[in-house]
Automatic annotation (TrEMBL), chain A:
Domain NADH-quinone oxidoreductase subunit D, first and last residues per copy: 306-556
Known partners and oligomeric status: NDH-1 is composed of 13 different subunits. Subunits NuoB, CD, E, F, and G constitute the peripheral sector of the complex.
Protein name: NADH-quinone oxidoreductase subunit D
Family to which this protein belongs: In the C-terminal section; belongs to the complex I 49 kDa subunit family.
Alphabetic keyword roster: Cell membrane, Membrane, Multifunctional enzyme, NAD, Oxidoreductase, Transport
Reactions catalysed: a quinone + NADH + 5 H(+)(in) = a quinol + NAD(+) + 4 H(+)(out)
MF terms (GO), sorted A to Z: NAD binding; NADH dehydrogenase (ubiquinone) activity; oxidoreductase activity, acting on NAD(P)H; quinone binding
Protein localization: Cell membrane
Organism: Halobaculum saliterrae
Topology class, membrane: Peripheral membrane protein
Residue ranges occupied by any NADH:ubiquinone oxidoreductase 30kDa subunit domain in the UniProt entry: 43-159
PANTHER family: NADH DEHYDROGENASE [UBIQUINONE] IRON-SULFUR PROTEIN 2, MITOCHONDRIAL, NADH-UBIQUINONE OXIDOREDUCTASE 49 KDA SUBUNIT
UniProtKB/TrEMBL annotation, chain B:
Source organism of this protein record: Halobaculum saliterrae
Molecular function terms, GO-annotated: NADH dehydrogenase activity
HAMAP family named among the record's database cross-references: NDH1_NuoH
A Gene Ontology BP annotation from the UniProt entry: aerobic respiration
UniProt keyword list: Membrane, Transmembrane, Transmembrane helix
Pfam families assigned: NADHdh
Keyword Transmembrane: yes
Protein name from the UniProt record: NADH-quinone oxidoreductase subunit H
Protein's cellular compartments: Membrane
Keyword Signal found: no
InterPro entries: NADH_UbQ_OxRdtase_su1/FPO
Primary subcellular site in the record, as a coarse category: membrane
A GO cellular-component term linked to this record: membrane
TrEMBL record, chain C:
Molecular functions per Gene Ontology: 4 iron, 4 sulfur cluster binding; metal ion binding; NADH dehydrogenase activity
UniProt source species: Halobaculum saliterrae
NCBIfam families: NuoI (TIGR01971)
Entry keyword Iron-sulfur: yes
Protein name: 4Fe-4S dicluster domain-containing protein
Alphabetized InterPro entries for the sequence: 4Fe4S_Fe-S-bd, 4Fe4S_Fe_S_CS, NADH_quinone_OxRdtase_chainI
Length: 556, 358, 153
């Protein structure tokens, strides 16, 4: 977004409330105040969650429940609701809900924000807070037979989790689900199914060939990345892991999420030169990720192993070669460091610029081919237009972000709305489509590839002319990083799939006390039942493909 | 036909009987000659399938997707056919718990059987035709649709919900597209006035138009291109290829009716599917492309015929590379509301053309 | 209909131009870029046993055993567990451990992937390239210490 030329029909600035105004609005429901680095925090009674959130949503305009973080202190449990505005994500507020140490019960936010459903289930699963009034409080990532809550303080790491078979349902037993209603048929789609893009399990109830009900069963790829990060040092050991959340070549985007949160937390200034390199690398990753998304979506709709998938992979391969030259790895880059990047551009620089330029030059032709093969194809249009419809209000309630939200006409892109890196200096546009259907989401991705190419081109120009003596790639960062005790921050970047946020709380050591990942795929996947119910099985598959989930990021 | 009827003149069994002097043995000789003929034709088709399945399909897909395909074993990677055969046949045959046994075993047999049966009446040129009954065309259609029986048997007997969905889809699609297919076929019969395959081929020998010394024969594809396009589309649907591969639909219902089959049965299903494609091509060639007709001496007929059925095979693969699959309801809708109407419109159109030509 | 035909024309164009983008892998060794990170190589002659690599490793891939005089006895690295983040190479002050571009390794069991210092020493260079050259120019950025306290082991 260029700052120089204001848009002719620029929307009116979003009304902003000061922390005190908000406190007044909430009245005596607030029992304390906290200061988070990103937002004011209001401590409220555990039985006033719905009141407070609906007041904030309806009267103050905080319509985006970005994330729910649960954690355990020595003396209490705590759930933090990170609220934002879709119109202006820099306006943030944290609603802190303490719960009793012995009997952690807190009111559910699900009636206000649908997205709280899964987030609170996760909090229950990993930390062990009970949510009152939650429609379906079960474990979500771990199996039902799991003993204890892994992120709770009294969790016994050494306790064997292998439970006797009798405690688990016999997987081979006769399945009578749905038999009392003889009009429907229960069908397991996945966890091993060609179209679930990984180990996702959809418990589907079919009425004929139409989907009467679908429920996602996730967690097959759960590794508790949050705990892994809590065991790593800020300075080095966390950075390799973000690559593994959204592992479909969106690594640099994920690394940036962590880098941004940690840099803001420790107050590290990143040199401008490094910001340009980061921006370029991140957009290259976005192209690679969108290429794969488009290719696999085509695969889901076309059926067999088709040409378009291979063409997308071929073009993605070019991006990956560039990224390999830059970072030394094809997927697991570990290229960012706190305060910059690890390497300058590869020598000879001219060769790197030329290679990247060649790719950008060939890109319009490749995209033309995609349009011929995919978006221009009448059968594909028949298949995707008006299927998997996700109205904007529903998308907002579920916290959908990224191409999924932009395909529903929600003009929300953190690169522009909450600028970081070098984005606000560059000239590019946020892509939105108003169709709300599978086709719109496909178009958004295809058009975003063009926008990313524009950004990369500008970055290349900048890097080419950058004075040699001014090429600082890393700020001076202490070898051991110990942010101040009890600092809390929630920061998000625009990942390939949407808003990828990190919440961190420090306890004065060199490792985070709580590390929470707000995964865009996790929230986006929640919308699947809304999109698929009443549609045919092929449309369920297409809707899933258009969500472009990566199970590594859903399950973390 | 009863056994007492002497072998039809010019048919393959007759040729064999003459060649081997089997005529002296009466009915027994005729049966032996007929079996030998069927054996020859079946093997010819199986060889074609062997080339098409493990080798040509991979090569073609690779060409469409910019890849290198099978090229390591033997010249042009051709020995992969042998390797694949050994691999597939030596795999374990897994029988699902609760499979409905006789039906589960019969299904995979029915598919290649029905497709091979259809070839009994196809004139392949160079004197290769097993029989030439007066109801030839009806026989070919009838034989090829036995396959749907096999599909639903497999789908039902596998005790798998995906298979069941696939089986049901197969039946729905076969019914929806068989009717337009046959009605379009009938429009050719309006021209020829007979269902006999050799007569249909014969009727296409005459010259249609002569332009600048090049004579275009009176193939029905040239006489009525609209019917030809309709027929090819319905044919692709009938043999279940993209964009109409609804019964298999790997990304939706995994592989439909064939989900539970492995090893020998898997091979049989695949053989059946490929022969079915060839049969579809053969019927289309006979009805619309002059059968084995082509430049050069009549002895080259089998070469032209093979080229035509391979062209149809290539066409299905081309579609596979570029055309998305329809949704099942759209597919059925196009069948009943689109193709059927067009097929009858074509019948009327053909009647008009016949009237004009006559 | 036009769209379908356009799509079919596109794939046919690709089929006929004869270009391929895959390589015949074991016959043709793929090009890797100079910065590519593969299996480690270790030099006992250079190593000063400072244990920084062991300390920085995010998932305990490196195990060092010293005697009571702090002389190095064992240097074990589980290349099957390694996540190839290259932090060990980055912290090493003497270039004793570095990641070659060799990405091919096989073993029959998981345990065989634990390389001791002899095995690590014998890891071959990929196409004879020393990757350090391409990564070297930027090492200074890390070696230049920050303002904070320096905790050498």
């Amino acid at each position: 977004m260029s700052l120089e030329e204001p848009e002719p029909d620029a929307p009116a600035p979003v009304e902003e409330q000061s922390p005190d105004e908000l406190a007044e609005l909430l009245g005596d429901q607030v029992i304390g105040r906290e200061e988070h680095l990103n937002a004011p925090g209001y401590v409220i009674r555990p039985d006033a969650v719905q009141d407070v959130l609906s007041t904030l949503k309806n009267e103050a305009g905080y319509d985006h429940l970005s994330c729910v973080t649960a954690q355990e202190y020595e003396d209490r449990y705590e759930s933090i609701y990170h609220l934002k505005k879709f119109d202006d994500p820099t306006q943030e507020v944290s609603v802190v809900v303490p719960a009793d140490r012995e009997n952690p019960v807190s009111e559910s936010a699900e009636p206000v924000f649908r997205t709280a459903d899964w987030h609170e289930r996760e909090a229950y699963d990993l930390v062990g807070i009970d949510y009152d009034d939650h429609p379906d409080l079960r474990r979500i990532l771990l199996p039902e037979s799991w003993q204890g809550h892994p992120l709770a303080k009294d969790y016994d790491q050494d306790r064997p989790q292998v439970v006797p078979l009798r405690e688990n349902a016999n997987p081979l037993q006769e399945d009578h689900r749905g038999e009392d209603d003889t009009d429907t048929m229960f069908l397991n789609i996945g966890p091993h199914h060609p179209a679930t893009h990984g180990v996702l399990h959809l418990k589907t109830t079919l009425d004929g060939e139409q989907v009467a009900d679908v429920e996602s069963d996730i967690g097959y790829l759960h590794r508790c990345e949050e705990q892994i990060c809590q065991n790593g040092t800020y300075r080095h050991q966390i950075m390799p892991y973000p690559d593994r959340w959204d592992y479909i070549s969106a690594g640099l985007l994920n690394e940036w999420a962590y880098a941004r949160a940690a840099e803001d937390m420790a107050d590290i200034e990143v040199p401008e030169y490094a910001q340009v390199i980061r921006t370029m690398g991140a957009e290259l990753c976005r192209i690679a990720a969108h290429m794969l998304a488009v290719g696999t979506f085509a695969l889901d709709v076309y059926g067999d192993f088709t040409a378009i998938f291979m063409y997308a992979i071929r073009d993605r391969e070019k991006v990956q070669n560039i990224l390999e030259d830059l970072t030394g790895q094809r997927l697991m880059f570990n290229y960012f460091r706190l305060g910059g990047v690890v390497w300058d551009l590869p020598e000879p620089r001219e060769e790197f610029f030329e290679k990247t330029r060649d790719f950008l030059e060939d890109l319009p032709e490749a995209l033309e081919e995609y349009h011929d093969l995919i978006s221009g194809n009448e059968i594909l249009q028949m298949r995707t237009i008006d299927t998997g419809v996700l109205p904007p209000e529903v998308a907002k309630s579920y916290g959908a972000t990224g191409p999924v939200a932009r395909g529903s006409g929600i003009d929300y892109d953190l690169r522009r709305d909450d600028p970081y890196g070098y984005y606000d200096e560059l000239d590019w546009d946020v892509v939105t489509e108003d169709g709300c259907d599978n086709y719109s989401r496909l178009l958004v991705r295809l058009r975003e590839v063009e926008e990313s190419a524009k950004i990369i081109e500008q970055c290349i120009d900048l890097l080419e002319d950058w004075p040699e003596e001014d090429r600082t790639i890393q700020a001076n960062v202490p070898r051991t990083l110990k942010p101040d005790d009890d600092t809390e921050i929630y920061r998000a970047v625009e990942g390939a799939k949407g808003e990828l946020g990190i919440y961190m709380r420090s306890d004065g050591t060199d490792k985070p006390a709580r590390f929470k990942i707000r995964s865009p795929c996790f929230s986006n996947l929640q919308t699947l039942p809304e999109m698929a119910e009443g549609e045919y099985v092929p449309d369920l598959v297409a809707a899933l493909g258009s969500l472009d989930i990566v199970l590594g990021e859903v399950d973390r | 036909m009863t056994g007492a009827v002497p072998l039809q003149q010019g048919m393959l069994p007759d040729t064999i009987a003459n060649l081997l002097g089997l005529n002296a043995y009466g009915v027994a000789g005729e049966i032996v000659a007929a079996l030998l003929g069927a054996f020859l034709i079946a093997n010819f088709l199986l060889i074609n399938t062997a080339f098409a399945g493990p080798w040509a399909k991979r090569k073609i897909t690779a060409a469409f997707t910019d890849r290198i395909a099978v090229n390591r074993i033997g010249p042009f990677g051709l020995f992969v056919i042998v390797a694949d055969a050994v691999r597939l046949l030596s795999k374990e045959l897994i029988v699902p718990d609760g499979a409905d046994r006789p039906a589960w075993d019969l299904g995979p047999l029915l598919i290649p059987f029905s497709a091979l049966l259809g070839f009994a009446v196809i004139p392949m040129g160079s004197g290769l035709q097993l029989a030439d009954p007066e109801t030839g065309l009806a026989f070919a259609f009838a034989a090829s649709s036995i396959a749907s029986l096999g599909l639903i048997m497999m789908g039902y007997a596998s005790n798998n919900k995906y298979s069941l969905l696939g089986g049901l889809r197969a039946v729905a699609s076969n019914i929806a597209y068989e009717i337009p297919l046959i009605v379009t076929g009938v429009s050719v019969v309006l021209f020829t006035g007979t269902l006999q395959m050799s007569a249909i081929v014969e009727a296409q020998q005459a010259a249609f138009i002569s332009v600048a010394g090049v004579t275009i024969p009176q193939w029905f594809a040239f006489v009525n291109p609209f019917a030809f396009v309709l027929f090819v589309v319905a044919n692709v649907a009938e043999v279940g290829r993209n964009p109409f591969d609804i019964p298999e639909a790997p990304t939706e219902i995994v592989a439909g009716y064939q989900t539970e089959y492995s090893s020998v049965y898997f091979v049989l299903i695949y053989l059946g599917e490929f022969i079915h494609i060839f049969l579809g091509g053969a019927i289309a060639a006979t009805l619309f492309l002059g059968g084995p007709a082509g430049p050069g001496p009549a002895a080259l007929g089998i070469v032209w015929f093979t080229a035509k059925i391979w062209a149809f095979f290539l066409f299905t693969q081309w579609l596979r590379s570029a055309v998305p699959r329809l949704r099942v309801d759209q597919f059925i809708e196009i069948g009943w509301k689109g193709m059927l109407v067009l097929a009858f419109a074509n019948l009327v159109l053909t009647a008009v053309i016949v009237g004009v030509l006559a | 209909m036009i769209g379908i035909l356009k799509g079919m024309a596109t794939t046919m164009k690709h089929a006929l131009d004869g270009k391929t983008f895959t390589v015949e892998y074991p016959d043709v060794a793929p090009e890797v870029s100079p910065r590519f990170r593969g299996v480690h190589k270790f030099s006992q002659e250079r190593c000063i046993w400072c244990r920084q690599c062991e300390n920085v490793c995010p998932n305990d891939t490196i195990q060092i055993v010293q005697d009571d005089q702090r002389n190095g006895e064992q240097y074990n690295l589980h290349i099957g567990q390694c996540i190839y983040c290259r932090l060990c190479e980055e912290v090493c002050p003497v270039d004793a451990i570095l990641l070659t571009q060799n990405f091919e390794f096989t073993a029959d069991t998981k345990d065989d992937f634990v390389y001791n210092k002899e095995q690590l020493k014998n890891v071959p260079w990929y196409k004879g390239i020393d990757p350090l050259n391409s990564r070297n120019p930027d090492r200074d950025a890390w070696v230049g210490e920050g303002d904070g306290e320096i905790d050498y082991q």
